[in-house]
């Protein structure tokens, strides 16, 4: 039976990709769906599998973290939890048929955000003086956290762009906050997914181990690849996965 090797391989590579550049959800969600898991359950289960990587990343940047202008650390944590809860709750009430139709569009959007990531961050940096009002910062954080609670793909790029837009300039601080917010909203989303009974725990735990191993071991191999090769490889994967989901509809 090929299901187990497929899920382990997808989770391992996803862990490595998330550690280096992001894009792991482009592999875990399709892998679970292609093994017969309903899309909503696949999204929840894949999110559970990637949670340890976010937590490890947040811990690694713990000394560099600082909130972006316009927000306190307490506000960032609260908004991440509220937004993650709202997004996860929305996923719970989304029928599989509806989510199956939405998934390829979400994959396309996430792939576009990933491909345009450097330009998004440059644009955000150039516009940094216009969006630091507390209510705008809070609204932006809430929207991105809600997206992350509903669909994880492209979350890191959105968070980095948001932090740059708010005026944050230190890359280590941005990456630290990105991992912290991702871990927080994913953790609350996982709790809601679990309470809603939409997590396949055998697959989730198996993939969690593989993703963690990939984050620590596979990332060493991925780091040897030129950044452009890695980025466009992820973009190509996202496009292929979106096309396959469109074809399966």
UniProtKB/TrEMBL annotation:
Membrane topology: Multi-pass membrane protein
Superkingdom of the source species: Bacteria
Protein's UniProt keywords contain Transmembrane: yes
Keyword terms, alphabetized: Cell membrane, Membrane, Transmembrane, Transmembrane helix, Transport
Transmembrane segments: 31-54, 75-93, 99-116, 150-168, 180-201, 229-247
Subcellular location per the Swiss-Prot or TrEMBL entry: Cell membrane
One Pfam short name: TauE
Family as reported in the entry's similarity comment: Belongs to the 4-toluene sulfonate uptake permease (TSUP) (TC 2.A.102) family.
Name by which UniProt lists this protein: Probable membrane transporter protein
The species this protein was found in: Acidovorax benzenivorans
């Amino acid at each position: 039976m090929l299901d187990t090797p497929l899920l382990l391989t997808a989770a391992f590579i996803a862990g490595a990709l998330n550690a280096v550049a992001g894009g792991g959800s482009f592999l875990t969600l399709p892998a679970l769906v292609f093994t017969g898991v309903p899309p909503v359950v696949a999204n929840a289960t894949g999110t559970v599998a990637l949670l340890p990587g976010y937590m490890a990343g947040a811990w690694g940047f713990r000394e560099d973290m600082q909130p972006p202008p316009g927000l306190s650390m307490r506000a960032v944590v609260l908004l991440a939890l509220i937004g993650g809860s709202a997004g996860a709750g929305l996923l719970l009430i989304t029928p599989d048929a509806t989510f199956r139709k939405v998934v390829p569009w979400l994959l396309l959007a996430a792939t576009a955000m990933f491909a345009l990531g450097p330009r998004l961050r440059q644009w955000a940096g150039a516009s940094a003086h216009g969006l630091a009002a507390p209510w705008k910062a809070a609204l932006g954080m809430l929207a991105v956290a809600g997206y992350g609670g509903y669909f994880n793909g492209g979350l890191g790029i959105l968070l980095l762009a948001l932090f740059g837009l708010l005026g944050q300039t230190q890359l280590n601080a941005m990456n630290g906050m990105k991992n912290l917010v991702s871990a927080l909203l994913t953790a609350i989303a996982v709790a809601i997914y679990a309470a809603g009974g939409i997590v396949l725990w055998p697959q989730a735990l198996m993939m969690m181990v593989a993703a963690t191993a990939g984050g620590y071991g596979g990332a060493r191999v991925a780091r040897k690849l030129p950044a452009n090769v890695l980025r466009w490889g992820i973009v190509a994967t996202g496009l292929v996965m979106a096309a396959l989901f469109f074809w399966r509809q």
